[in-house]
Predict the structure.
Amino acid sequence: MVAVAGILVIAGVIIAIDVPSLLRKKEKKELWVFFILLLIGISLSIAQALHIEIPNPVDWITVIYQPLSDLIETLLK
């Protein structure tokens, strides 16, 4: 639980540093992207800290391209 609190504190510091300048410049789209990416990062970090298994994106890519790889392999033999 200490790790989760640490992650949230660090996220708060990041927000305190970056958000005021985005608000001053009235960059609303950048602010939305910032919060979305920060939320994704915080979520993954908390899941990692709580030892929740996070699927590997490379496994998804392998599932998608494996049939194509098998086809090319049989054609080249």
Notes: The CA atoms of residues 23 and 45 lie 26 Å apart. The radius of gyration is 20 Å. The chain has one domain: 2-76. Residues 2-76 form one domain.
